[in-house]
Amino acid sequence: MHAATLTHSPHATVPSARSATFAPLQVIGTGALVPLNDGGTVGYANLDYAASAPCLEAVHEAVTRALPYYSSVHRGAGYASQVTTEAYEKARETVRSFLGAWERDAVVFTRNTTDAMNLLAHAVPSGTTVVVFETEHHATLLPWKRAVRLPAPASPIEAISAADRALAEAPGGPRLLVVTAASNVTGELWPIAELANVARRHGARIAVDAAQLVPHRPLDMKSLGLDYVAFSGHKLYAPFGAGVLAGRADWLRAAEPYLKGGGASASVQNGGGTTQWSTSPEQRHEAGTPNVLGVIALAAACEALTGTGWDVLKADEERLLARLRNGLAAIPGVRELTLWGDRSDRVGIVSFVVDGWSARDVALTLSGDYGIGVRDGKFCAHPFVHHLLGASEAPLEAGGASGAGGCGSGQTSAVRASFGIGTTEEHVDRLLHALARIAREPRG
Ligand code: PLP
Predict the structure, then answer these.
(1) Which pLDDT tens digit goes with each residue over 220-240?
(2) Hey, which of 113, 180, 209 would you mutate to test ligand 1's pocket, going by the most ligand atoms within 8 Å of its Cβ?
(3) CATH superfamily of the domain spanning 309-439
(4) Which of 16, 92, 246, 261 is the 20 to 30 Å CA partner of 363?
(5) Measured distance between the N- and C-terminal CA atoms of the chain, rounded to whole angstroms
(6) Residue 55 annotated as catalytic
(7) pLDDT tens per residue across span 260-297
């Protein structure tokens, strides 16, 4: 059945269900109405948090509170400038404590995870060998000059031994292991504590892409032994354009400024004389006027999540995740993508394919007929999605059922549902109900 020809309101048959609590946090946009193909409207079921999460009320409030005294940072003597500078530097300490980073670590504000990983790639000493799994998001896979790419490991234990071997075989000089904490495709958690041990044993460093972990679970750099962590505010309910690279200061302090300009420069001489760059790693790599409101928003999200308690958030998420995964498993023709199998620990991110349907058509039908927002495609993790679909070098977005399919469906891309604070059982049930109908009616 074509999305546009469906004339009933599918959600009318959805059983009502109690809401997830995620108490006491609220997100902005709950209950927002979206149009349907049949001319009706329905409350939006946002199941695309892994791309960008909605804004927390607490974040919105923090930004609103900051605005009356919004002014320049590190540049003005006026009162508003002092207030804003203090808020900006306080945010750095909030993030430090959110990540469990050392006092001596740098906490550099960036635009997002992509920017943070590129800053780290810029700062690694020349000749550094980077070891990275090809399961990474492109932001973490691509920035490195000299990288050894490891294939998708069949288990967490294999990930540890593959990293061990690669670091042992790497040429002398600095080595950096780069790995995700939680996959943006399958939600699966990677054994970062063990990988940090492996790195340490080889005298290497480890950088962790925590973009998909920190919205769902706590992270403690000190106890895990992590050298660098990167994440994005917009995935952490703080959609104001700030991100973070936190970690060891020495490489950052020694690197050329990431951007050259005001703030990064300590002194500049007339007549083309020498420029002295700031030796503070933060100032050195935060040239120009920073994104103050983004940083205040990001810190407010860190405080709100920590203040609520991870146990509460995790319990709600796990309940919804079990509901979603069990429901998907019960629909003939729907297959979840997983690297390490059903039982591996994961956050609220699930990718799947529907037999006989392209991912794009599933996503469009979910949106137009059911008011559900999901993502479809390869999630900026092309090698990993090709691996999961068994389509080695899959053709560019074929948009339909073509190419080899290791999962038996001939798919070249997948659908991803992801959630968090504000997601309800009704959203999950609506998705399952919709998919059950979609899967019964394969497209020709
Ligand atoms: N790393 C992971 C695991 C991600 O999921 C994403 C975004 O989806 C990124 C990095 C890149 O994040 P950003 O687009 O905020 O730079």
Answers:
(1) 999 999 999 999 999 999 999
(2) 113
(3) Aspartate Aminotransferase, domain 1 (3.90.1150.10)
(4) 16
(5) 10
(6) no
(7) 988 888 888 888 788 999 999 999 999 999 999 999 99
